[in-house]
Amino acid sequence: QVQLVESGGGLVQPGGSLRLSCVGSGSISSINRMGWYRQAPGKQRELVAVITRGDSTNYADSVKGRFTISGDSAKNTMYLQMNGLKPEDAAVYYCNVAGISRGRNFDAWGQGTQVTVSS
Which of 29, 42, 52, 93 is 20 to 30 A from 107 in CA distance terms? Predict the structure, then answer.
């Protein structure tokens, strides 16, 4: 079973930076997609950034130029570098990975990490 654990959230002032990490465990043969999503109170979960097979990246318009998604396959870790944070970026951030594990498709989510942007 593939499990994901996020870390790196916290309280930051507007304009500040945070780096979220997502560490995966379990037997992963291949990855089709890995991404970050966020959910603010009273709102639906939304895509923040995603890397698909072939290393194609996509970002929500609201974070383009400020956030960067990356991965380190040797460490089974995915990152989200967030710069120039705004109060509207505050949310619970979730990592998501889809791929193949032990010959079967999987689609795993982390438990979420809170990001608060406030002065």
Answer: 42
